[in-house]
Amino acid sequence: ARDCVLFQRSCAFERIVIPARYFSQMDPEYMEKQEAFSVLPFLAACQELKVKSPLLLSVPLTLHMLESKKYRTGLLNWITGFTEIAGVYVSVCNERDVKQAISTEYLSALLFFLHELRNAELEVIAGHLNTESLLLSLLGDVTITMGSFENTRMFQVDKFLVAEEERRGPRARVYLPGLLNWVQVDQAKQVRDRDSRLWSEVYWPTEYGDAALAAKVEPTFNQPDLYKHHFLCFEKQRGILDALDIKSRAECLNQWIDQAKVCYSRIDALGIEIERHGRSAHLDPWGRVIGDHVKQIGLV
User: Fold this and answer.
1) Cα–Cα distance between 76 and 19 in angstroms, integer?
2) CA distances (Å), 7 to each of 12, 17, 49, 276, in order?
3) Which pick of 27, 114, 142, 269 has the fewest CB atoms within 10 Å?
4) Alpha-carbon distance 129 to 151, whole Å?
5) How far apart are CA 79 and CA 57, in angstroms?
6) How far is Cα 25 from Cα 89, in angstroms, rounded to an integer?
7) CA–CA separation, 58 vs 23, rounded Å?
8) How many CA atoms lie within 13 A of 121 on its CB side?
9) Listed residue (222, 64, 241) closest to 149, CA to CA
10) Calpha distance 174→184 (Å, rounded)
């Protein structure tokens, strides 16, 4: 603990993060084990080293932990019991067979839990998120962390395991803001070539996206241009939401979802069959979650 704190301080990090173990089951002794493994040793090390930086507690959860109201309440009581903790870094292992988060129960539970943490006046950082992080704008002042490769846009423990068999890299995808989704590059090009007007509605041009799509050889998943394109587009979307109040953010998100549905219908009409990870299955669940959250916080 002492070495870890010293390392973080030597890097001049603005905050000191207390790590935690990931438990794959809803362990009734989760809090006690986390305290013994890291929380208490780290708090002692921070006191010894006279750390002045805010302390963030890592809270890695399973889907079942998050969706259990009783478990969430216990976690909240446990976290707020440490007066030294300024905030939490929440990561949820949401095992799924599609790249987008499409579970209404998961997304609703995530928003509710983070909302509870904000009400407890804790700083909240939500990690390993994909484009569903746009929904977190409904919580106000919440920080999100997002990587570039697919395995850094969702938290799954199999990414940390050593596998004997060779894993094949995923197909290259491009982020299309008008669809709120990533689509395989070859299928995106089909949309571009068959309907230029539709393409202008789903694709936001950037120098990196333009370069990747204009390349004579289809880009691979580990080339940077498509990820730089994504970050620029996503920054623009976040900026639009940041300028609005919570109610207006919900209205904007719903408008984006409705527009995306229309665009997906037009893609279907072109006879382009988008593979399952790039389809519109996320849009209806997102719309329901927005409606539920707006009602929950009393904006309607």
Assistant:
1) 17
2) 9, 11, 12, 43
3) 269
4) 10
5) 8
6) 19
7) 13
8) 4
9) 222
10) 6
Span 218-229, pLDDT tens digits? 887 778 899 999
Tokens 């609005």, located at residue: 244
The answer to whether the CB of 59 falls within 8 A of the CB of 91 is yes
- pLDDT tens-digit profile of 123-140? 999 988 888 999 999 998
| Two tokens, residue 257 | 């979802």
Q: Are 294 and 138 in contact (CB under 8 A)?
A: yes
User: Residue 87: its pLDDT value, please?
Assistant: 95
Q: What is the pLDDT of residue 217?
A: 83
Please enumerate in sequence order all residues whose Cβ is within 8 A of that of 122, keeping only pairs 6 or more positions apart, or say none: 79, 80, 85, 86, 87, 88
Q: How far apart are CA 203 and CA 226, in angstroms?
A: 12
Q: Which amino acid is at 74?
A: G
Six token digits for residue 194: 């068959």
Enumerate the β-bridge partners of residue 18: 57
The C-alpha atoms of residue 234 and residue 283 are separated, in whole angstroms, by 17
66's tokens = 């998050």
Q: To 10 degrees, the CA torsion angle through 50, 51, 54, 57?
A: -100
Cite the beta strand spans of the chain per DSSP E.
16-18, 55-62, 85-93, 123-126, 143-144, 173-176, 181-184
Q: What is the pTM of this model?
A: 0.89
* 36 within 8 A of 1, measured Cβ to Cβ: no
Instruction: State whether the Cα torsion 181-109-152-11 is positive or negative.
Output: positive
Cα distance between residue 95 and residue 24, in whole Å: 11
Of 87-91, 147-151, 278-282, the least confident: 147-151
Q: How far apart are CA 32 and CA 39, in angstroms?
A: 10
pLDDT at 98 over 90: no
